[in-house]
Hints:
The protein is of the alpha/beta class. The chain has three domains: 9-148 and 273-334, FAD/NAD(P)-binding domain; 164-270, FAD/NAD(P)-binding domain (3-Layer(bba) Sandwich); 346-465, 2-Layer Sandwich (Enolase-like, domain 1), CATH 3.30.390. The chain has 15 helices and 21 strands. It has helices at residues 18-29, 46-50, 52-69, 85-107, 164-168, 184-196, 215-228, 281-284, 320-334, 365-371, 386-390, 419-422, 427-431, 436-441, 454-465; strands at 9-14, 34-37, 112-115, 119-123, 126-129, 134-142, 146-148, 176-180, 199-203, 231-233, 236-243, 248-254, 257-263, 265-268, 272-274, 307-309, 349-352, 358-362, 376-381, 397-402, 409-415. Strands 1, 2, 3, 4, 5, 6 and 16 form a seven-stranded mixed sheet that branches. It has a five-stranded antiparallel sheet with strand order 17-18-21-20-19, with helices on both faces. Strand 8 (176-180), helix 6 (184-196) and strand 9 form a beta-alpha-beta unit. It starts with 8 loop residues before the first strand and ends with a helix.
Amino acid sequence: MRKSPPQPYDLLVIGSGSAGFNAARVAASLGKRVAIVDGARQLGGLCILRGCMPSKTLLYSTEVLHLAQKGKTFGLDIPKAAVDMKALHARKIKIIGEFADYRVQALESGKYDVYRSHARFVDPHTVALADGRILAANHFLIGTGSKVSVPPVPGLAETPFWTSDDVLNLDFVPESVIVLGGGIVACELAQFLHRIGSKVTLVQRSKNILKDHSPAASEVVQQAFRDEGINLHTDTKIEKISGDTRSITVKFKNGDKSLTRRARFLLNALGREPNTTGLNLAAAGVKTTPAGRIAVNKWQQTSASHIYAGGDVCGPHDIVHLAVAQGELAARHAFGVKGLKPIDYSLLLNVVFTDPPLATIGVQESELTARGKKFIVASYPFNDHGKSILMNAHYGYVKIIAEPKRGRILGAEIVGRDAGELIHCFSGPLAMKATVFDLLRAPWYHPTLAEILTYPLEELAEQINS
Length: 466
């Protein structure tokens, strides 16, 4: 590592995850002198090391396992299909190691000065590292991500629990697990645990799991979970959590009923919070929102205009491709690149990797209704479509939302087989402000899953023309 330089860096990035790395990459491409400070045990960021990539590696393996176990449904004689946790764990480590190595090579390419330490602001232009070094910069990008939160649930803090990190590192099949929460992480990992052979109980406070999505879509996933054998409790209030390293007890109310569930392990998947601990933001003049996120404007600037933030630490959505875009935008804005446009959140794309998966893009019905905007909508079920029927993919539907006069596509929601892939059929059209009629002019091959999108498109066209 180099000693601290006598002159300030053009950009100092705190955190080498998706936002931080891409801000550094863009700044270096503009000829700027860049430092990256990251005190994590491993470089790479949440997505590569403890988020998207390890979780999807494991989820795909258990999807293959689930299909193999249903061989008779497809006329196949598969005598036995079971998980080999040691092999599954080893495969995940190998794949994630390759991704992480690639990121480390990029970080150590010589384009940046990399400091393996934690940083805290001393003043708006200076940070002190945990190893005693002092660094100065003209601009900063804070990309320190998020961490697992421990909400004030009675007994949670005093009871041993797993986080998503622990589940993603399992090399054995837990006998039983109680999962707290009903968000994306809770649902994806609950299904993973169930499919490797754990007895899973999921306890969710809201009426539906995946409450940030439409009730109709959430209910499809809920039904699939229950049909699969996950013990799902929604609309609950946790009264007490207790236990030790041998067993866990969760007491909660469901309506007027008081219920008690016991398991060998507890997974706390009640959410994440911005990781700003120790940054001493006050010394830099950086303000946070009531929810604890760093407040930013449309250019990712904080209340101190030379300090930017990107990714989970500022939101508004904890999604990797947005973190990348935020980091890139921040670097370009900091160094005066012309012709910039703010991130267009009306193109918001979201995927939940449950089975069936759930995906949305653009503006949804609830938001349009809240704004008082007029729209038309049409949907079509997977259980009435040729390709999905032969795949035994009966759960779910596709839904398309459009402007009522010209038919411009405003948004879409898909819950069902390959939803995360199918939703991208709308990415280009939404960005180009395409209409229902534009999409109907395109060819749609038969028989494919994507062809199902033509049915709601045709219904919308009829609504507009009638």
